[in-house]
Amino acid sequence: MLDATPLTRAVDHFADRLRAAPQSRLQRGAAAEALGLARELALRAQRLEDAQGPAREMPDAGMFAAADQVMVAGHDLALVLRTEGELAEAMRLVEEAQKRAGV
Fold it and tell me: Which phi-psi region, left, alpha or beta, contains residue 40 (left: φ > 0; alpha: ψ -120 to 50)?
């Protein structure tokens, strides 16, 4: 079984940084960046769980929910990752989104 602890730690860290960010930073794009990441992580988890099933998009629950959405989607993906390559790609996505979000 793959140890995806690095991914859960990374999404938890990003979520914590988002929660600590001022509202102005969230409004300037950090929340949108987080939602985009959450949607991508959720989509990847869905594909790994059921490649034939319909894709469902994570809803926009508002800028103050973005941190929780990143965390939930990241933890869901961590549960279904199968390879080191999938883990590395997910880690790259989180790191890049956090940089773009500026938190």
Answer: alpha
Encode the chain (103 residues) as per-residue pLDDT tens digits: 799 999 999 999 999 999 999 999 999 999 999 999 999 999 999 999 999 989 899 999 999 999 999 999 999 999 999 999 999 999 999 999 999 999 9
Whether the model pTM is above 0.85: yes
Nearest to 43 by CA among 29, 58, 30: 58
Query: What is d(CA 12, CA 73) in angstroms, rounded to the nearest whole number?
Result: 11
List C-alpha distances in Å: 53 to 45, 56, 57, 81.
12, 9, 13, 17
Beta carbons of 31 and 68 less than 8 angstroms apart: no
The total of other beta-carbon atoms located within 10 Å of residue 3's CB is 11
Length of the chain: 103
